[in-house]
Design brief:
single chain, alpha+beta, YbaK protein, five-stranded mixed beta sheet, four-stranded antiparallel beta sheet, 8 helices, globular, YbaK/aa-tRNA-synth-assoc-dom, aminoacyl-tRNA deacylase activity, YbaK/aminoacyl-tRNA synthetase-associated domain-containing protein, YbaK/aa-tRNA-synt-asso_dom_sf
Length: 190
C-alpha cells in the first residue's frame, strides 16, 4: 500500500483503514473489506467534519477534498438515488446533468434524515464506499483527475484518504464529465 502524500494529509496522520474499523461506519468497513479497497483513515474532531472547517483546521487542500452528496430524482411514482462526488471547490449541477442522468422530472439533495437512514452513515461523513449497492456513484471529472482524495468515512469523527483509482474501482462508480462547475473564487472564500 502506498501512503497518502503529506500535501493531501495536511497535519493529519493516516493509517490503513481496516486497522481502525472503529473509525468507520459499519457499511464502509464492510465495503472496504469485501471489495479489497485501498484506504487510509485519520481521526478528526467531529465538530470539524464540515469541509471548510476541516480543511482550514487540518491543512487539507480544498481541491483534494471530495464531497459525497446523495441526490434523489423523482419521475411519477419512481424514485432514484445516486451518490455524486465533487471537489469542495465545485458545485454539482443537480438540475441539469444529474437530473438528466437520473431520468427524473425533479432532482434535489436527499433530505438529511433520509440520506442518513438509507446509507447507515452520519451526516457530514457520508461516502460512496458502502452506499446502497443499487445506487450509482457519479464522480465529477475534476475529482477523477486528482491522484489522492480526502473523503468521508461514514462518521464525523474521521476522514478517509484514498487513491482516486480506489474510488473509481468501487462497484457502480463512473467518471462523469460536466457533473459539477467551478465555484466562483469569492464564494469559496466566504
Amino acid at each position: 500500500m502506498t501512503t497518502p502524500p503529506d500535501a493531501v494529509l495536511g497535519t493529519l496522520s493516516a493509517i490503513p483503514a481496516l486497522s481502525r474499523t472503529d473509525l468507520l461506519a459499519e457499511p464502509v468497513a464492510a465495503a472496504l473489506a469485501s471489495d479489497a479497497l485501498e484506504a487510509f483513515v485519520a481521526p478528526i474532531d467531529p465538530g470539524l467534519a464540515d469541509t471548510d472547517a476541516f480543511c482550514a483546521h487540518y491543512g487539507v487542500p480544498l481541491d483534494a477534498s471530495a464531497n459525497a452528496v446523495v441526490v434523489r430524482g423523482v419521475r411519477g411514482d419512481t424514485e432514484r438515488f445516486a451518490v455524486c462526488m465533487t471537489l469542495a471547490t465545485r458545485r454539482l449541477d443537480v438540475n441539469g446533468a444529474i437530473r438528466k442522468r437520473l431520468d427524473a422530472r425533479k432532482a434535489s439533495f436527499a433530505p438529511l434524515e433520509e440520506a442518513v437512514t438509507r446509507t447507515g452513515m452520519e451526516y457530514g461523513g457520508i461516502t460512496p464506499i458502502g452506499r446502497p449497492a443499487d445506487w450509482p456513484i457519479w464522480i465529477d471529472a475534476a475529482v477523477a483527475e486528482r491522484p489522492w482524495l480526502c473523503i468521508g468515512s461514514g462518521i464525523r469523527g474521521s476522514k478517509l484518504f484514498v487513491p482516486t483509482a480506489t474510488l473509481l474501482s468501487v462497484p457502480g462508480a463512473e467518471r462523469v464529465d460536466g457533473l459539477a462547475r467551478e465555484i466562483a473564487h469569492e464564494a469559496v472564500e466566504n
